[in-house]
Design brief:
The chain is α/β, with parallel strands linked by helices. The chain is built from twelve helices and 20 strands. The strands form five sheets. A ten-stranded mixed beta sheet has the order 9-7-5-2-10-1-11-15-19-20, sandwiched between helices. Strands 14, 16, 17 and 18 form a four-stranded mixed beta sheet that branches. A two-stranded antiparallel ribbon has the order 3-4. The two termini are 21 Å apart. The structure holds guanosine-5'-diphosphate. Guanosine-5'-diphosphate binds next to helix 1 and strand 3.
């Protein structure tokens, strides 16, 4: 069986969770390999509607092993709450279907606190953090100042390690931010509490995945956010603090040699973006309000209204290249059914010149969108299940995007439900 990665092509919220939930039918393993609980994947299936933050979207499929890889920001406190809410929906979550990498680093309470303190310090220059502690977490990880989950099995060493980290962290909390110092006993108690709850789940997941790769099991790698939020390739500094690219999946899963056969890039039929940063094709006013209302574009984690606009071919083509996508899932095409004319951002104008390539982030603020319009279809397509039954203008829209982003659109999603998808 083949391995695939399901990744975002744009700014996130493209509908990856919905695609993973559908595609897990053929998967033996589903692996989250980067990011934390700062975004949400919304999944609608026979158990109900769930906003997943850190749990892999394969947890709803019996027989699928779900893994949180070494690349994630492991926030045990929020993960436990998320597990409890999913269990309430009647979904079993045990070490039989969920494992956590012993090499995943722990997001500690002070990471959340530091996120809030830094956003407050930045005032109007803030990056739009969700204050889940993700940026302080990853910067500590790269400074080698975090605890790995496997250390929970070495309590004496762990206490010493926490003590060293706390001494250093208190210099920052008190000296830089004038905040209260963290308390060692409280920190140890927090780690012990969650250590007990999670001990049965923590193991060498890299070995599991490497073995799965050797024995022909199919592995689905699930990313958070999208290409344009990738730390290295995105709209830095308005990126996230990890690599959202498929190329990072083997490393963030602890299986650097596992081959990915297919990269399914998820693209929304229009653009949305949460938080700060340049967003060239942004709409304002009543057009934006209407698209936001029809598409229900409010953050799954924060409830924040998302910024919206027409599909951006320039950014999407760049996102496709960064992901090296082999197929595209175009989602929320049904949302556009209310429009008479469908706007498409085909190029950017920069300093009086028309450009096709996604520019360096600092130039984005000066770019203006060049918009063309296609005829709408003005009919409900949410029940359509075959390509032939899609209205001609909807097919033309899909084909136009396909031709201009350089990758085949294999899936056309027309609703959030598992079966509301046309496979071409
Ligand atoms: P993710 O983080 O990429 O998984 O995206 P989100 O879950 O934040 O946002 C996608 C939202 O769109 C969710 O509420 C989905 O249920 C919903 N959704 C996904 N695909 C479709 C679609 O084709 N049509 C409609 N109407 N909603 C969709």
């Amino acid at each position: 069986m083949s391995n695939c990665a399901v990744v975002g092509i744009n700014w996130g919220d493209e509908g990856k969770g919905r695609m993973v939930d559908m595609l897990t039918e053929n998967a033996d393993f589903v692996v989250r390999y980067q990011g934390g609980g700062n975004a949400g994947h919304t999944v609608v299936n026979e158990f109900g509607k769930f906003a997943l933050h850190l749990l892999p979207s394969g947890i709803f499929r019996p027989g699928v092993m779900n893994i949180l890889g070494n690349g994630v920001a492991l926030d045990l406190e929020n993960l436990w709450d998320e597990m409890e809410s999913v269990r309430k929906g009647g979904v079993a979550l045990t070490p039989d279907n969920l494992r956590i990498s012993e090499r995943a680093s722990l997001l500690l309470p002070w990471h959340r606190e530091l996120d809030g303190l830094e956003e407050a310090r930045l005032k109007d220059k803030k990056y739009g953090s969700t204050k889940q502690g993700i940026a302080p977490f990853y910067s500590d990880k790269y400074q080698k100042k975090t605890i790995m989950a496997g250390e929970l099995f070495y309590p004496e060493l762990l206490r010493e390690h926490l003590k060293d980290l706390l001494e250093w962290k208190n210099l920052i909390l008190t000296g830089v931010y004038g905040a209260e110092p963290a308390d060692l006993d409280a920190l140890v108690a927090w780690v012990e509490k969650y250590g007990k709850l999670f001990a049965p789940y923590i193991c060498d997941t890299g070995a599991l995945i490497r073995e799965a790769g050797k024995t022909g099991k199919s592995i689905l790698f699930e990313a958070q956010l999208g290409s344009l939020r990738d730390l290295d390739m995105g709209i830095y500094p308005y990126t996230t603090s990890s690599n959202t690219l498929a190329a990072y999946a083997p490393v963030g899963s602890g299986a650097p040699t596992v081959h990915i056969d297919d990269v399914i890039g998820v693209v929304k039929a229009y653009s949305t973006c949460v938080g700060e940063g340049p967003f060239v094709c942004e709409w304002f006013g009543s057009d934006a309000d209407e698209l936001r209302r029809v598409g229900f574009e409010f953050g799954a984690k924060t409830g924040r209204p998302r910024r919206v606009g027409p599909i951006d071919i320039v950014a999407t083509r760049y996102g496709v290249e960064c992901q090296n996508a082999t197929a595209i899932a175009l989602t929320k095409v049904d949302v556009l059914s209310y429009m008479d004319k469908i706007p498409v951002c085909t190029h950017y104008e920069l300093d009086g010149k028309i450009i096709d390539n996604f520019p360096f982030p600092a130039a984005l603020g000066k770019c203006k969108p060049v918009i063309e319009y296609m005829d709408g279809w003005k009919t409900d397509i949410s029940k359509v299940r075959t390509w032939e039954d899609l209205p001609l203008n909807a097919r033309k829209y899909v084909e136009y995007i396909e031709q201009n982003i350089g990758c085949r659109i294999k899936y056309v999603s027309v609703g959030p439900e598992r079966d509301a998808c046309i496979i071409r």
